[in-house]
From TrEMBL:
It comes from Seminavis robusta. Keywords: G-protein coupled receptor, Glycoprotein, Membrane, Receptor, Transducer, Transmembrane, Transmembrane helix. GO terms for cellular component: G protein-coupled receptor heterodimeric complex. Residues 57-245 form the G-protein coupled receptors family 3 profile domain. One of its GO terms (molecular function) is G protein-coupled GABA receptor activity. This is Acid type B receptor subunit 2. InterPro entries: GPCR3_GABA-B, GPCR_3_C.
Length: 337
């Protein structure tokens, strides 16, 4: 599924709804899900006895799960933070270019923290493949059945896993906060609703799946089935809200984008008509009309005096107290005074 989303993003990256969603972060989201999904393969490995290969497979499971989760969550956080920076600069009437690497600090911080915890986990208390005998013995006291699972030799594993989970939880909360800040941005830019769906799905999956894992921990087949299902559901919780929504909203949002592009083009034409040094502000009432108010603070004095002396037929206006001019601009009628 992640590979299909990567292919779809590549084929549609020039369309507005995809480019507005920042394809580089969509790729990152898919790669994180792929890394998480690969944890299913070492999870399925079994053996009659403990071997170094099985021990490495056991320890690779938390590496794949934690790093894949960090990559996916950081993609949502980075794309939302980038949008928040752009919206903030627009409110301040500043032109700013925010590159992808400018918002990768949370990703780097989370990745470094998780790698540090995983390294400590691997060195201090690594997971090992252990076969545990069941209560089925023969007359000589020998075990007739046993099951294998990954276990740690001491309780340090809970410390490292808990610290990594705490950092990832903070990353999710920070991403939710950034989405809340840009909640009023148009739907084809903002991911607030879809992030809420993702977080709700993840929370429900973990709350329902964790108790089931505890119950079936002594049954390797059932444990693998439940764990693999949880991993798949977590990946779907990341991918489905982000990509399915774009498939359904692609056409309508593209029409809205064309309207916004037409509005920006009209504003540029107006700025050329009144002069590049003029300061103006616009009001958009949603009816297709843009009311633009221009302040003649930087226009030449000759232009001011000639217009102010003829304003409304009176000659007592001076260039100092020249009133501001208001103009209406529509896409069909051109410039109107």
């Amino acid at each position: 599924m992640s590979l299909g989303c990567i292919l779809w993003t590549y084929l549609n990256q020039k369309k507005f709804v995809v480019s507005a969603a920042q394809p580089i972060f969509l790729y990152q989201l898919c790669m994180g899900c792929i890394v998480m999904a690969t944890a299913i393969f070492p999870l399925s490995m079994q053996g009659k006895e403990s071997t170094p290969q099985l021990d490495k497979a056991c320890m690779s499971i938390p590496w794949l799960l934690f790093l894949g989760f960090v990559i996916s969550v950081s993609a949502i956080l980075a794309k939302t933070w980038r949008l928040e920076k752009l919206v903030g600069s627009a409110h301040g009437m500043r032109r700013v270019k925010v590159k992808a690497r400018d918002v990768m600090k949370p990703f780097i911080a989370l990745m470094v923290w998780n790698v540090a915890m995983l390294i400590g986990w691997t060195i201090v208390s690594p997971l090992k493949y252990v076969r545990t005998p069941t209560n089925n013995f023969d007359i000589f006291g020998r075990s007739l059945e046993s099951y294998g699972r990954c276990e740690s030799s001491d309780s340090w594993v809970y410390l490292f896993a808990g610290l990594a989970c705490a950092a990832n939880t903070c990353g999710v909360l920070f991403a939710a906060y950034k989405c809340y800040e840009v909640r009023n941005v148009t739907v084809y830019f903002s991911e607030t609703t879809y992030l809420t769906w993702s977080m709700a799905s993840l929370t429900e999956t973990l709350l329902l799946g964790a108790p089931i894992l505890v119950v079936v921990k002594d049954d390797p087949s059932a444990f693998f089935l439940v764990a693999a299902s949880l991993i798949c559901v977590c990946c779907w919780a990341f991918l489905l809200p982000m990509f399915v929504s774009k498939l359904f909203h692609k056409n309508s949002n593209y029409k809205d984008a064309k309207i916004d592009g037409q509005r920006r083009q009209e504003e540029r034409l107006y700025s050329v008509a009144v002069g590049a040094d003029s300061q103006f502000e616009d009001e958009y009432d949603g009816s297709g009309r843009i009311n633009i108010r221009r302040f003649d603070s930087t226009v030449s004095s000759q232009y001011k005096s000639s217009n102010c002396n003829n304003w409304g037929g009176s000659s007592h206006h001076s260039a100092r107290n020249c009133p501001r001019t208001e103009m209406s601009l529509t896409s069909h009628e051109g410039f109107q005074r």
